[in-house]
Amino acid sequence: MMNSLIKKFLSYFFLFIAFILLNFVLVNKSLALAKKEKTIELILAQFELSSAPSNQDNFKAGVILGDSRAANLKAFFRKHGSLLYDYADLIVQVSDQYQFDYRLLPAIAMQESNLCRVIPDDSHNCWGWGIYGTTVTKFDSYEEAIKTIAEGIKKEYIDKGLVTASAIMQKYTPASPGSWAHGVNTFLKALE
Description:
Elements: H1 2-48, H2 69-79, H3 88-97, H4 104-113, H5 142-156, H6 165-172, H7 179-190
Helix pairs in contact: 2-3, 3-5, 4-7, 6-7
């Protein structure tokens, strides 16, 4: 019986010691955490007492999204060494004015003239606009060409329901077996 009492006593004694050690560890952790919080408060108090004006209410986070279409065109024109680089903003402007996809004029120019690399002399006509047989439509500048062709695309195609490359092709270049529309669609996709 005495043996059993000693075993019980030793069990309770070790359990008591374990609780004291656990208590000691928890108290030390609490003190360390309190010290850390006090240090943080002291550091923050230095900023609050700083002579610099507080701008806490003036900081605002936000993202302003811009119109990247002209930048997209410029990157495409630069990649292909095109003279149309300087007219990217105008192309976006007239596309908006006449309510068609801003990529359409560059895609047609790429298909028709490799972005103005192969055009009739002094024509400024990168779009093959009014060029058939011996007839060559010339413009005084790329700006005039862009504005005239954009208006023509709107009146002669978009307003008449010809809004896809395949539909436009049937009137724009009726002799094409589909390669024109395929090319324009390819360049439209390249400009996405």
